[in-house]
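Anyone up for a design puzzle?
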């Protein structure tokens, strides 16, 4: 699980770097920031307040939003969803 957490954090970092090089609207940026915070919250057992179902739902919405215009970001989000699923989140 720790290795998976590290992978997710790495994917989040890659996603953030990809988004910095992309011109995004304020709503999308806010969604990404909230998603990042929710994922970090899920991975921290001391503060896990986020509802994992809503986090996964948000991730799928982001993935769909990026599918056509931001395929690299979409791939990072899909990998995050898959890794969360493997660790049972």
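Challenge accepted. My sequence:
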């Amino acid at each position: 699980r720790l290795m998976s957490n590290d992978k997710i954090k790495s994917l989040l970092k890659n996603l953030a770097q990809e988004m910095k090089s992309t011109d995004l609207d304020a709503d999308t940026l806010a969604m990404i920031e909230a998603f990042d915070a929710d994922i970090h919250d899920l991975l921290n057992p001391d503060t896990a307040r986020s509802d994992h179902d809503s986090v996964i739902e948000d991730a799928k919405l982001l993935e769909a939003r990026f599918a056509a215009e931001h395929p690299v970001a979409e791939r990072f989000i899909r990998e995050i969803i898959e890794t969360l699923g493997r660790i049972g989140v």
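A detail worth pointing out: The mean pLDDT is 83.
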